[in-house]
């Protein structure tokens, strides 16, 4: 039975903690999604090496982190390549404190921007305006204030930003990895990256 999002997140967090990785679970998946915004499908080993850069895990922790990251790679790839738009950013459960979720959201965006840089896809001249706007928005969201107070407005803003990330990832990937597609698969209003400041 496949893992749900919450179990996947907990699993990856625990595996990364086991090898004292500096990259968070959210940042690791963000990086992977950025790498997928390329005409070349990223190699799992290339991404795992970047996530574990500078580490030499051994024994059981090494096995666990490789298993968790390999499973995350496969799950993310399946969802990104699935036409039914099942992709979800890997973030803490909604029961987690808003500060934790906001921090993870910022890390996810940082990872994505790093990944798209490594993939070499972010050439503003070649990308359409919508994709460039998305990348600029993610740069703003990466600077999110994790100390935002828990109130209904910020909770709604967080939910909107997560939905925006989901749509934005699919939009950028469409223009970079799938340039033959004529029509964007996702639309909707642009989120305001300043809402949680």
Automatic annotation (TrEMBL):
Signal peptide: none annotated. It comes from the Bacteria. InterPro entries: YgfB-like, YgfB-like_sf. It holds the Pfam family UPF0149. Belongs to the UPF0149 family. This is UPF0149 family protein. Coiled coil: none annotated. One of its GO terms (cellular component) is cytosol.
């Amino acid at each position: 039975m496949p893992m749900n999002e919450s179990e996947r997140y907990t699993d990856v967090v625990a595996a990364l903690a086991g090898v004292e990785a500096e990259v968070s679970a959210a940042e690791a998946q963000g990086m992977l999604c950025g790498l997928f915004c390329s005409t070349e499908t990223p190699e799992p080993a290339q991404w795992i090496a970047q996530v574990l850069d500078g580490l030499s895990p051994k024994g059981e922790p090494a096995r666990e982190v490789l298993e968790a990251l390999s499973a995350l790679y496969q799950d993310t790839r399946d969802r990104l390549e699935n036409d039914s738009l099942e992709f979800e950013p890997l973030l803490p459960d909604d029961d987690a404190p808003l500060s934790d979720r906001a921090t993870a959201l910022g890390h996810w965006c940082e990872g994505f921007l790093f990944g798209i840089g490594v993939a070499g896809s972010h050439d503003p001249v070649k990308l359409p305006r919508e994709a460039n706007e998305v990348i600029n928005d993610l740069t703003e969201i990466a600077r999110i204030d994790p100390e935002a107070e828990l109130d209904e407005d910020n909770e709604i803003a967080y939910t909107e930003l997560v939905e925006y990330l989901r749509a934005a990832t699919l939009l950028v990937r469409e223009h970079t990895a799938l340039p033959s597609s004529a029509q964007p698969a996702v639309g909707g209003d642009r989120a305001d990256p300043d809402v949680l400041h």
